[in-house]
Amino acid sequence: MQPSPSTPTAPAQLRELRTTALACLLEPDPATKVAMVAAMAGAPVALDAQKPLAPTGPVPGRPERPELVPPRLVGRRSMITPEGRAMLVHALAHIEFNAMNLALDALWRFPDLPFDYYTDWLRVAQEEATHFAMLQAHLQVLGHTYGDFPGHDSLWEMVDKTRGDVLARMALVPRTLEARGLDAIPPLRAKLAQAGDMAAAAILDIILRDEVGHVEIGNRWYGYLCQQRGLDLRATYAELALRYEAPTLRGPFNLEARRRAGFSELELSDLPA
């Protein structure tokens, strides 16, 4: 994999990009974080190029609300009432906020990878920030804001567990947990459309389109790392899923989206019936 002509190639430039990503990751205010990611994507210059490339606060930075609870306590999201739809949109916004953080973490945490790895995750961070901003804006139309309802931390728990190995991170976050979104979004989109919330349905169309690309990035770098280490893709994935206690996947699966995201037919055949 070779960097594109526009990709920074000097070590100092890469350090600046990773330092800026870490600053974005540590920012607790969602609106400020979104603005910082947009600025970084437009002109990735570090806030302080001499600053050590290490966290100086909680990782990730996040607001005091929403309250984080076990998944079973998040609450039901009936489409019948505006409150129920707002709860669903809030849950989606929380996922996208965490996804923005995981992209920033993937960008800053792992050194010595090809430059395209970093520009790929910069793109993911920018798109996840856009998703969050769209959902937050729609949530406000529904009379609420991010933090009004509880959320769970399942996605970030796996990010934290895989912080020591980029191979495990690529295997179990984008191509496992995020890939579940490829399966979940179409039925959620249908429910929102049936309830008459076409604005939310349109946002989910954008998210599904972009998430295919995000999962493809995870698949591509997982394949690259397996090749670099002389590992079999499928056997290594099964071993990592067991070691890190990845959630059991359940259908129905969006096989067409998974194919576009880079899963092979053999990998799709490994999915439970």
Give an account of the 3D structure.
- The chain contains ten helices and no strands.
- With 273 residues, it is mainly alpha-helical.
- Helix 1 packs antiparallel against helix 2, helix 2 (30-42) packs across helix 4 and helix 6 runs antiparallel to helix 7 (198-229).
- The longest helix has 32 residues, at 198-229.
- It is globular.
- Residues 1-8 and 44-49 have low confidence and may be disordered.
Tags for this entry?
10 helices
Low-confidence stretches: 1-8, 44-49
The secondary-structure class comes to mainly alpha
Rounded mean pLDDT score: 90
**In what range is the share of β-strand residues?**
under 5%
Percentage of residues assigned to helices? 55-70%
Quick overview of this protein structure:
This protein is 64% helix and 0% strand. With 273 residues, the chain is an all-alpha fold. α1 (11-26) packs antiparallel against α3 (82-109) and α5 (154-161) packs antiparallel against α6.
